[in-house]
Amino acid sequence: MDSIFQPFEYLFMKRALAGCLILSLGSCPIGVLLVLRRMSLIGDALSHAIFLGVAGAYSLFGLSFLMMSVGGFVSGVCVAILAGVLSRRTHMKEDASFAAFVVLSLALGVLLVSLQRRSVDLLQVLFGSILAIGREELLLMAIICFITFLLMMLFYRPFVYECCDVTFFGQVSKKVGVYHTMFLILIVCNLIAGFQTIGTLLSVGLMVLPAIIARFWFQKLTSLLIGSVLIGCVSGIIGLYAAFFLDWPAGPGIIIVMGALYAISAFIGRYGSMRCLAKS
């Protein structure tokens, strides 16, 4: 019992645990809709686009969490809007537009990082430092989580309609583009919430992996939403134990735990796993 509660006697571990739970509550439901829309790689593209804004804000304002968050939000939203506009005004598909922008954003971000003499400090932020988060970061995570929950409740049906059958939704509503843009902005906001904890390049994992794992165990949308949140919370707690007792880096450790759960689910899950396909 002492080993179970020992890590969370420290304030930095309590804050890390709170950050994991808040991120799971906000990011995992968005990840479910991403997976159902077959847009998982677009989430990864936006996480790379945020890299440019964070690097640009760092070069201008230094190691300021608030300014780097604002910079990442601006660059992520701009890439999302520009990719959507190009996909509607040209023959290029949205995923191809995202691919073009993400390569350019990542290249510019790496260029900005390479020009800074203090790039090591920035890389520590970009690749996550969940054990070093403070009140400011937790407050931002809580605000983004609250906004995500509020918008999910207010626009639950439009999000689900667009997720299941965008053609039908386009016939009954003229605001498909508005809801799609709103959804992309929610993705960017939750990636911003996660960049301080597990980094911009890994934050999409916390969003998408629990949803993918949940798909092997649940079929109903409500069960998928709840299951993904629980998987995210459990993975975060196990990852923090690994960081405390095994001296793992906390952010990558959480993603590795999710990867292990994904492998187990792919073999023995209730729906669509190797075990189910072997029986059929």
Question: Can you offer a commentary on this structure?
Answer:
There is one protein chain. The protein has helices at 2-5, 11-36, 40-61, 65-89, 94-114, 119-126, 135-154, 156-164, 166-172, 176-198, 203-215, 221-245, 250-268, 274-279. The chain has 14 helices and no strands. The protein is 81% helix and 0% strand. The protein has one domain (11-279): ABC transporter involved in vitamin B12 uptake, BtuC (Orthogonal Bundle), CATH 1.10.3470. The model has no long low-confidence stretch (mean pLDDT 83). The chain is mainly alpha-helical and 280 residues long. Helix 7 (135-154) runs antiparallel to helix 10 (176-198).
Number of domains: 1
CATH class descriptor name: Mainly Alpha
> How many strand units?
0
CATH topology, what is it called? ABC transporter involved in vitamin B12 uptake, BtuC
Shape: globular
Q: Show unreliable segments.
A: none
Q: Let me know the average pLDDT.
A: 83
How many alpha or pi helices? 14
Instruction: Profile the largest sheet.
Output: none
CATH superfamily: ABC transporter involved in vitamin B12 uptake, BtuC
